[in-house]
Design brief:
This protein is of the alpha/beta class. It has a domain of 35 residues. Helix 6 packs parallel to helix 7, helix 7 packs antiparallel against helix 17 and helix 12 packs parallel to helix 13. The chain is globular and about 80 Å long. The N terminus is likely disordered.
Amino acid sequence: MSRRQGRKARGQAEVARKVNYKTLRNPFPPLPAFPDDRIDAIHDAALDVLGRLGIKVLLPEARALFENAGARVEGEMVYLPRTLVEDRVAMAPKSLLLKGGSADRDITLELGSLIFQPGAGCPHCTDLERGRRAGTIDDFNELIQLTHHFDALHMIPPLVEPQDVPMHLRHYAMMRGQLVNSDKIPFVFSRGTPQVRESFEMLKAFRGITDTEFASASYCYTIINTNSPRQLDIPMAQGIIDFARAGQVSIITPFTLMGAMAPVTVAGALTLSHAEAMAAITLGQIANPGAPMTYGTFTSNVDMKTGAPAFGTPEQVKASLGAGQLARKLGLPWRCAAGSAANINDAQAAHETQISGWGAFLAGASVIIHSAGWLEGGLTVSYEKLITDMDMVQTFAELCAATEADEDAIALTALAEIEPGGHFFGAAHMMERYQTAFYDPVGMDWSNIGTWEERGAEDANTRATAIWKGILRDFTPPPCHPDKIKALDAYITDRTAAGGAAPES
């Protein structure tokens, strides 16, 4: 019996606890990993890397933009003067408003804001009933519905790759899934200008956004990963340019694993990541000064026995804290990550996600991706883990809620009512607050009351399965006029018949 059922059995009226997790701000001061002078040294070293060692840029248009802005270009290598980088990075806005399908889904990316995303970018998904499998469009839609259900998840990421949809048509299916199943901020892959342009067209038409409105505000975002070390490939460079010119948000995220794509030391990895992030932001600001872009990092270490990514490690936490210091030096909103390399949703998985999640939270990240559901270092998203991880996410959200402020929160009346050596179970102060004082945000019911046999021998995964199945069973999409869906489907049908849009490589 759950706590909620227990209250009903005792005849108490149930009072819904009112929470607002749609808009969060982190009230805690961010923790540093390095003294200020070491952060200055990392920043200076990153600028030296860009000016002296350069960055390889594979897109000719991007190299031309860099060169026209004052960079030195030799073949595919681009050498960025310090003043060029500093001047252009300073043009990036410090606060970014992204508009959702309804006003209460709008979010602001800036230092101090707190945005959560579930695990993303996985080729596989898994659950206890259907097992581990290649992701499909049905899985993608179900995971969007689970993401939409939780207010503490604010943006839709590319949860799982729907591999049953060909690449030249996949952007249609993924955009449709996001628009029909949620009114949260959608994601658009940077897989070439045609796919980006068509994704923008679907978004504008479905949400009734005029070209003028779309040009003057941000309604979607992409993630840009550099090819560490010191390389920017064609799709990513093109994505930076496309999103900058359209006024839509690019989340710049170098993927620097210590000992593999980056130096083995935390400071060395941060130097490389910082250099690549600034180079990418510089390109966006050359393409369109003032374009909405965020700083980002995905820095952890690898298992040196296997070369596989590791998460929840001391090195990852230190890197997250240091990245936060570098982001604050630039004044930009920034993206960090939780994550787990565990193969199943077990104690290792919970430990790694929580430790890395705390690292990102205490680092003051504006966006924390992979906060729920991520397994195998990004190879798999788990339905059960998404549910169990939401206890962590919504604990962070609750820590961001307002402090108790009612007149008697200090409980002098309760302290006067109960005699020394007594208990507060029946105190009037407690009974007035009992139904809302303790919050089980996901419904996992972690209560230890009752024996193992009485509880039916259910473990956390079994309970999580029942919860995600219930969410999907009872899911109601956001209100939408049927004509909008009909028009979207007609657009997809027409574009599919015309051959779709092949991704650029």
